[in-house]
């Protein structure tokens, strides 16, 4: 029986093969390589998912020597009936759109046009379920014209791609869950999650951080809940959250200003059996134009919110646009200071925190990655936000993470946890900064947490345990007394060690101190006399 390890190896080999094809046609490290790799991989996945499902619906297809020949025997009505039985997570395909059909046609004239039109037709016919929306209501469909990315030999380029897709099938791994697909997804975009890959590093949260956030948010079984990320990126946080809850027990909502990251999130949802949430994935500016609203126009409120928002962004030109009654309610602590120069970047994360507070429902929980400086700032918008969290009694706790937990930034980060049901206090403040092992990642240092360290953080936080020099459990009143600081270190007990000694030992120590002081004073006197003597000897010439 083929193991998941084998399929993981084959899948990674397929991704490498596709990257090799791109390199052979002058697209290696090209900005368009990302689009080609992800779209072709998605076509392969949807094709095999379709084949898997139709074989489940018709045993004749499952046992046939050639399932495609058997499927072509269906009448138009029977084929339509079969399509109606497919699950929501499967794209509807026609026989001429299968990879095997394109493989058989690869020697026809204008094969690049055949290939492109096949993908465009699939995108059009499945746009209702698989399209990402823009904030203006436009649909971003599944596929574009792949061959347009090469300047010549387009037929050969598309032939090379289709020949890489025919070698193996995903059919036998669709029962796998999050961990398998998370590994594949990370490998798929690994080359684009670096500085050389543009801005993809902004969209990727380390798995350890995402796991800790999800595990500390979901502490009991829930169902039929809504999950939201206002700065979703590729969806790592949302995938971990959905996995902790159960993919069939939650609905995902998101918004992100980047079309590229929204496309990545769509792919992540397809891989992780969350296709039902794709219509809720929106490309747009959450701060300026939040998309998800109720019928009465009020912003939708959610059960769970996760976010790793951008810390700084050139947003100063839009501050005036936010001066409305509705936004004054949403941004209760006000606007961050506009920097003197645009190069500095405006601290935009406080706007995301306020937006999250505003969009949590009455029982809602949230986990937000923030710069560690936020938890101790003594003035300004940051302190006003902390005051509101205490005033409204909606704090769950803070975990201060090790430095360099994100390899792409030197900023120390903490995770801020909100819980609107935590009105009695019992707030956990944790200093996990000493955990982890430092490794080299490219030119950067990165701190990695072991599985045991991740579990230590999760278990201690969820049990509300006070552990010496690691965690404290405090009340809202205690936080007020500490000027609203959320840093665990400011609540740790100051220890003074006492040692019992006899009177003779005490006298001996004091005599030693006295003798040492007398010696130092004598040396000081000699030095003073020597300096005065030298000064008197100086003459002007």
How is this structure best described in words?
It is a single chain. With 541 residues, the protein is of the alpha/beta class. Helix content is 43%, strand content 14%. The protein has helices at 4-24, 33-57, 59-63, 67-71, 76-85, 99-104, 111-125, 127-130, 154-165, 178-188, 207-217, 236-245, 259-271, 325-330, 349-359, 380-391, 451-463, 476-481, 503-536, and strands spanning 132-134, 139-140, 225-229, 250-256, 281-283, 302-307, 312-313, 346-347, 360-371, 395-400, 413-419, 427-431, 437-441, 444-448, 471-474. It has an 11-stranded mixed sheet with strand order 2-1-5-4-3-6-9-11-10-12-15. Strands 7-8 form a two-stranded antiparallel ribbon. A hairpin with a 2-residue loop joins strand 13 (437-441) and strand 14. Helix 1 packs antiparallel against helix 9 and helix 11 (207-217) packs parallel to helix 17 (451-463). The radius of gyration is 30 Å and the shape is elongated.
Which key terms come to mind for this protein?
elongated; eleven-stranded mixed β-sheet; two-stranded antiparallel ribbon; 541 residues; 14% strand; alpha/beta
In short:
It contains 19 helices and 15 strands.
Class by SSE composition: alpha/beta
Q: How many helices?
A: 19
User: How many strands in all?
Assistant: 15
For the sheet with most strands, the description reads: 11 strands, mixed
Radius of gyration equals: 30 Å
